[in-house]
Amino acid sequence: MRSTALLMLSLSVAPALTSASDDIDTRHALALYGEPALAADFTHFPYTNPQAPVGGSMARDAIGSFDSTNPFIIQGTPAAGLSNIYDTLLVTNPDEPFTMYGLLAEGIRLAPDRSWIEFDINPQARFHDGEPVTADDVVFSFTTLTEKGQPFYGAYYADITEVKALDGETVHFTLGDSESRELPLIIGQLPILPAHYWQDRDFEATTRDALLGSGPYRIADVDPGRRIVYERVDDYWGHELPVNQGRHNIEQLVFDYYRDHTVALEAFKAGNLDLRIENSARQWATAYDFPAARDGLVQLLEVPTGQPAGMQAFVMNERRPMFEDKRVRQAFNLVFDFAWLNQNLFYNAYQRTQSYFEHSDMAASGLPEGGELALLEPFRDQLPEEVFNTPLPMAEPSDMRERLRQAMALLQEAGYAHNDAGELIHQDTGEPLRFEVLLHDSQFERVVQPLLRNLARLGVKGKLRTVDVSQYLNRLRDFDFDMVVGSYPQSNNPGNEQREFWASEYANQPRSRNLIGLEDPVVDALVDRLIAADSRKSLQDATRALDRVLLWGFHVIPQWHLGNNRIAAWDKFAGQQPYPEYGIDLDAWWVEPERSERIEARQRSR
């Protein structure tokens, strides 16, 4: 039975223990299903260029501010790009759906029943101060992150019951009674921290120090709230590994902070930034027609993501009494006019999101059948009848007047009526139906205003509040909001992270990703089935069942999605094509010296 406690671990360091793996083959990689695409003697990932030149810089934008270089803890707002200084046990090949290859770990042994896994640490692995990376560091990292880190780590690794170092280079994880097929792979995503460095430091306190890691970059400069700079580690222990060949080619990575995206865009056009990932359809359509772009000095790329679009949505906080009632949430969904937004604001660039696993074979559609129906059937008495008798995607009237009429009927059914001033008041509590949308990006105000106008036509009073990023994050962590714009990203192989999105145990845990405050035993059970899926078919059944139940709960107002990454970059970068199938890897880009000099000469002459 899966434990709902944070973690109860038996942790030990046992230098002379005997491995349970004497008869288990040592592998170079793990695939979630089937076998790794690359053999043990592969020399580099297919999308990389081992002959890529090394040098140059890449400056990108970050929005808001930061006050910490520790990304693992609840306190503080961490700087962008900190993952560059850490190595993990394994690394993903983005050309495969979910396969992990050895990074810090040069060997992997997995029990046939998946009850334990062992990693052999590469004896060449070193932290930036020259100290070796050992099995003790792995034990320390796991213990520290799950006990003192963000709630994510406790949720992600909840089914690990024991971690121990068998010797200086071998670490053993016991996986308990978990049915999670992905658990052995996601252990490989654990960032490894230096135990000796943290021995006399407070891990739970915010810091602006240049923290110690073992990765391809180190922190070179910290200007709190304004800029952080990373420099390539010339003597990085892992440069020659196959998983790193042709990667980490750029000498300096810079993240400059800006108040908002509009200011950052102007900085890019002025040549102060090298690359932007553009999230605004309007900006993409209109803002990149400037002299340098017309002269061919700026690349505008649309790169397919290859991943599910996930769910971006207006998230309603069900800890608030008004949003406890599903009829209120459904009414709010009805008055969201995506078609108007797409035509008038988005240049028809987007598609409406209709699934939590949008743009994938895991999205629910039609009526439930087969394995999906079998998962839902035991909960028939606890679920709305629409789950079983109304096909997805949901059919909604195209005429806004009819949608407003249906929304009004739902609100009246929920106990609301108009007072003399035309405002909706709950007849039992006397409370008006009022709410606030909390934002940190002023660009989103134009998206929210049409929703507020439509709700005002019903007698609902909504208002906007745009705050700085630090205040926004603090309120988000404490669930101090009525409605926010939230995002639930999904991979091609969802698993343990779904707990923190939806499980009841995280509904009231500060800084968890259960922004909704969802507490539903049916959802909890379906999340468990998703995590336990032992084949692609059973995973599809579980995600579709979960998707269907979440959609008919009207917990969010789904927004929109795009199947591409929109990247604007000054034309000094190159990357091997075709790009990876399941996501672009900027670490595989490099700076072309001649093209870079051409751009720098132009900027000097201005």
List the helices and strands and how they pair.
Elements: E1 10-13, E2 29-31, E3 57-63, E4 90-92, E5 99-102, E6 105-110, E7 116-121, H1 135-148, H2 151-156, E8 162-167, E9 170-174, H3 183-187, H4 195-198, E10 217-223, E11 227-232, E12 252-258, H5 261-269, E13 275-277, H6 281-286, H7 291-294, E14 298-304, E15 311-316, H8 326-334, H9 338-344, E16 351-352, H10 370-376, H11 386-389, H12 400-413, E17 416-418, E18 424-426, E19 434-439, H13 445-458, E20 461-466, H14 469-477, E21 483-488, H15 497-502, H16 521-531, H17 536-551, E22 556-558, E23 560-561, E24 564-570, E25 573-574, E26 590-591, H18 593-605
Parallel strand pairs: 1-8, 3-12, 19-20, 19-21
Antiparallel strand pairs: 2-5, 4-5, 6-7, 7-9, 8-9, 10-11, 11-12, 13-24, 14-24, 15-21, 15-22, 16-23, 17-18, 25-26
Helix pairs in contact: 8-12, 10-17, 16-17
Explain this structure to me?
The protein is an alpha+beta fold and 606 residues long. The protein is 26% helix and 20% strand. The strands form eight sheets. Strands 1-8-9-7-6 form a five-stranded mixed β-sheet, covered by helices on one side. Strand 4 and strand 5 form a beta hairpin. Helix 8 packs antiparallel against helix 12, helix 10 packs across helix 17 and helix 16 (521-531) runs antiparallel to helix 17.
